[in-house]
Amino acid sequence: MVGNSSKLERFPHDNSCRQGAGRVGECDSAESKMKRKGPLLAALVDGGPTCDRCLAVRLGLPRPQYANSPGRKLVQQGRAVRVEAICSGCGHRRNVLAITDASQPLNLQTSPRVPSVRQRKPAIMNGHEALTALVTRAGYPSLEAAVAAHTLFLHPSTVAQTHGKALFPIVRGNARKGVHKFELLTDGRRVWVDNNIPVNRLFLWAAQRGRGVDVQCNHVWNTSNDPDGYTALWNLCLTPAFLAKATDSRGPVKDLLQYRAYDLYGQVPKGYGAPVRPQGYEDLKWLDFTPAVEDLEGMLRACLRSRPNTSPGHVARQLGWLFSDWAPDDSLN
Predict the structure, then answer these.
(1) Which of 297, 316, 154, 324 is nearest to 234 (CA)?
(2) What per-residue confidence (pLDDT) applies to 140?
(3) Stretch (H or E) spanning 236
(4) Predicted confidence (pLDDT) per residue in 279-314, tens digit
(5) Which CATH number belongs to the domain containing residue 90 in this structure?
């Protein structure tokens, strides 16, 4: 799902080291982990099987993770084991750490899981039903009909020039793991990790349009971790923001958009089969395409040269892109 954000794209000049990953004063180095193994073992000997929360309290650590990390080392060395049992500290059933020393036999207390008897509260609202009622009052026979009338796909002639390929080796990151950095995939490919801004930009370039108001660029298939699908033009469409949520959840609308994309471009991501034609598909009226781009490569090269500091521009020069056969494109310098 790609939002219409006003944040500026940033591209680091040096990606060899990421600093500032944690809070000031909370550097959890390998040396500090080693120093905690001794007190942690002593606490297990004295108190018995204990969860990370209670170990952190007992040892005066700021977070349970500070007990979890040296605990993993002890498990790897065969000096401790992780099991689900009653914690000797809090008395709750948790994943506890217990020593495996033969002189200290395990005294694990287990208890059967007690099913929850909490009564589920009624939902405060059903947004899907509210949206369906709204478009019905507006005169549309269904939510799917409203989505079709307001969803923009790129012209098939434009998308055909990519031959079913993605444009750039880019995948989506998240705030916890960080963005604007290079990563190496398990298959050996080097990719750029970014947010949704580059994908939104690529759609606008291919449509030869400027940024809209309260609109959102959406992925038809959820391929945020797949460099072969994340920047593929056949995987993108644009909707008003108030309809965008309906495109993000599994259901009739998602199935409709996937069939529409397949019907237009004949492409699906790796591992997907051809989608099934939805009932009533032939009766839907879709939003007209933007005009076709006769020379997609030439147009994109012009955009990359005029906006050299964007992520697509940097990635094309340093990693390569579709129209440089995935080799660094020196012609853009």
Answers:
(1) 154
(2) 96
(3) strand 236-240
(4) 999 999 999 999 999 999 999 999 999 999 999 999
(5) 1.10.10.10
